[in-house]
Amino acid sequence: MIRNERKIYIYSALLITLVANSAKLMALNTDGIIARYWQFNIWEYAFQFLYNMVFCMILLHLNLSEGKLFSRYREKQQWLKLYTFNALLVVAAIILGSFLHSLLFGALQLPRIRVRGYFARFLLSSVMVAVVIRLILLMRESKNKDLINEQLHTAYLQAQLKLLQEQLNPHFLFNTLSSLSAIVREDQHLAQNYILHLSKVFRYTLMHSGNDMVTMDTELQHLESYIQLVKMRLENTFQIQINISRDILNKKMLHLSLQPLVENAVKHNMATVLHPLIVDIYGENGWLVVRNTLQPVASEAESTGLGLTNLNERYRLQTLHEIEIHQTAEYFMVKLPLL
Fold this sequence. Notes:
The chain is of the alpha+beta class and 339 residues long. Helix content is 66%, strand content 11%. It is built from 12 helices and 7 strands. The protein has helices spanning 2-20, 22-25, 33-37, 42-64, 69-75, 79-105, 111-168, 170-186, 188-207, 216-234, 258-268, 306-319; strands spanning 213-215, 238-243, 252-254, 277-284, 287-293, 324-327, 331-337. The chain has a 5-stranded mixed beta sheet with strand order 2-4-5-7-6, with helices on one face. Strand 6 (324-327) and strand 7 (331-337) form a beta hairpin. The protein is rod-shaped and about 105 Å long. The chain starts with a helix and ends with a strand.
């Protein structure tokens, strides 16, 4: 992209210079109006051409190169400074060009004519350079959006794959099938209900595309199926409390945000009759909070945190907000931004 932009700088500066200095070529016609006021001199024209082109290149470079003075003003939206310094650069180029021109090729009887000529050419060049700058900035913005969408899609696919791997790994299948086997022996109707919720969990995992935003109500409805599976397996050692006001149920959140958090709580914490695993889900100041009692499994290896990192990356790319993670001696808490 940088190499292509440099080519655009050169070609644009060349085209702008040709347009701005095209009137001087009319002096080649000795019977024309221009020839009455200015005799064509190849060296004089070459100086004006090269000087004008260098001016355009400098203007493009200062406004578009990352980290340069003018670029920093634009990034910080300091428009007054940006326009002021550009205007000063144009004025300085006009004055310097007129001076060098007079020094190299002699002064005119009416020096104002030369200054006016430089003013007209450089004003036209500046306007055309501004158009090129805007076009290049639009190209960059479009490319950045495409890159963000690609990163978001990749992050989502990784999250989806990880979730499916968790659901299909031997540990998950063993617990699921063991619970189902026990339920089938005791209550066939309950077994059918278990299979129904299990199918809903898989279907919801696959039904949306990577960039989908869903309402909190939709995400909670899906979570209910997963909660039923956990309750059938852990029975009264697992408790979940959802306290969401109606006014935020239509808030948007990323698809598949809640199940991984509840799943992490179940996977990484003990759940016993004396010390049940308690998960709380509630709204708080524009955030959705998922909090669980912290009672880590003693034999478990330290978590890599890749699931939370991936979830945070999805939120950062899609919503420009990041999740918040807090841990105390009693609780582990993840806060999701609501849109």
